[in-house]
Amino acid sequence: MLSISSRILSRNGLLPFSLRSLATASKSMTVREALNQALDEEIQHDENVIVLGEEVGRSEGNYSVTAGLNKKYGDRRVLDTPIEEIGFTGMAVGMSFEGLRPVCEFMTWNFALQSIDHIINSAAKTFYMSGGQINSPIVFRGPNGAAEGFAAQHTQDFSAWFASVPGLKVLSPYDSEDAKGLLKAAIRDDNPVVFLENELLYETAFPVSDAALKNDFVLPIGKAKVQVEGSDITIVSYSLGMKYSMQAQAELKKEGINAEVINLRSLRPFDFETVAKSVQKTGRLVTVETGWPFCGIGSEIAAQVFECPETYKSLKSPVLRVTGVDVPTPYADMIERASFPTSKNVVDTVRRSMKC
Amino acid sequence: MNFAGFSLRNLSPKIGSPGSAVIASRFASNEVTFQTRPYKLHKLDSGPASETTLTKEDALDYYRKMQVIRRMETSAGNLYKEKKIRGFCHLYTGQEACAVGMVGAMDKEDAVITAYRCHGWTYLLGSTVLEVIAELTGKISGNVYGKGGSMHMYDKNFFGGNGIVGAQQPLGAGIAFAMKYRKQKNSCFTLYGDGAANQGQLFEATNMAKLWDLPCVFICENNGFGMGTSADRASASTDYYTRGDYVPGIWVDAMDILSVREATRFAKEYCNSGKGPLMMELATYRYSGHSI
User: What are the Dehydrogenase E1 component domain coordinates in residue numbering (chain B) (predicted)?
Assistant: First the structure.
């Protein structure tokens, strides 16, 4: 099943997790490079696109996602803002009302708690409240959720909060193709998009197809990807959770359990159809996320699977969730690690599901 | 009796009274020249014109508009008491000269954004009285099909109608940013109340507006009260026109419509010349409570 090139890659320790994209893989790219390429291309593609945020310009971005862009395009297109979250977020939304297409970076999504009124009340709701007269073609992006050693105030996962809001689109990429294709789609979308990246994935290199390297590579919003096909159990995840899901899938394969791993890519709109199709095939479902359990993404997926008669009837065991621990993130590395899921948690949960 | 430090008696000049001298009038002409009410300036060497000419057409137009808004708001108040309007209803009664005076100096491509005391603005910026009242009573023939209600009405270059106190401040600065980005010779008039003048996001918005020289006019409609709390019980400084610090400001007696108009003309010219943002305080009064 694996091609010669992928065997070479695996021998060199570069085994890519995305088997589908192996078919035409010719290059690898980190998630950071993919995001940078997306921004670079979209700034060129549309005169109205500007990037703003703290340290994005002269300092090239706190996580280097905007590296080189201010040098290339100047302050007019890549703008450093003062440390005034609610101020610059409100301004970015105002810019979008007046026809610009801002990409508003949050150094981390934790700081967007200061901005959240503008994300929700100004951006998400205005198209509805104005009877369709005013739309907000803005992208809010930045690293979300688990990091290492940043403690409670800098490590919260906001996926579930934003995914619940009508009027927003919420995307969360895993690999480099996701990152590039989804960010370009988000910028081109006329609705406000919350784009949740993860810092721990920025440095990870993934193979990318030739198509993904072109400047018109856009992925559809609202479509999940079957990252690996399987038949015994469905694992649904997104962003950093995919890393543990893919590791678990490889581990489980050794003991003869073929898990199908679905990469959601899009939290709102949520692709229930792809999940349902898989659950009806396998009869078992484990959701994986790094955010808190109560009212998390897994809760919503489970509820929808239970409410749909076809998927409910096909279940051989209850839906099980792997989530972060219900605790503000601790600092010391041992307890920090214990508060987030690992691939072992996913494997154990799959085994539990298989036993029912 | 006074509020926010101003004696109320001085705020309603009549023709012929010391506060508003008629400079010249010709019996057979259609124009009169008035003196405007004195302005107070902050970090400005000169301010709006001390004299202005009013044509008969404009006089009738302004009078009509102010009366329509007054009656529309009175009807809204009555409809609310009959429970035909639900939720919140913030009336502009008493503040008519602010909106009508400003619109008298603005052009169609300028932008306006305000808070929830927006019915009068909605009427002036493109909607009919029927569309406003239909929106208030939740009809599909309303300004936004009944989906917004009292606090969320919009039109071309009119960005609402915002429910969250202070939110419109950075939104307005962002609209001004986009105008400058596209090299437009227009301004965004960003209105807020004396209560919202204490919002942190105003400080943030004025910082960025001044940093980047944005054509944003920050206008505090000081009606003496933030909800139920008088201005002097909420603000360490009630000199709202100075609160922009490094942003120049003008205090306007906004019960005089021509003073408002001249100040707005000055503000437009100031922003169009690329000097950056300006702050204005319109000293006015509302005759109803915060909301009914």
Answer: 64-291
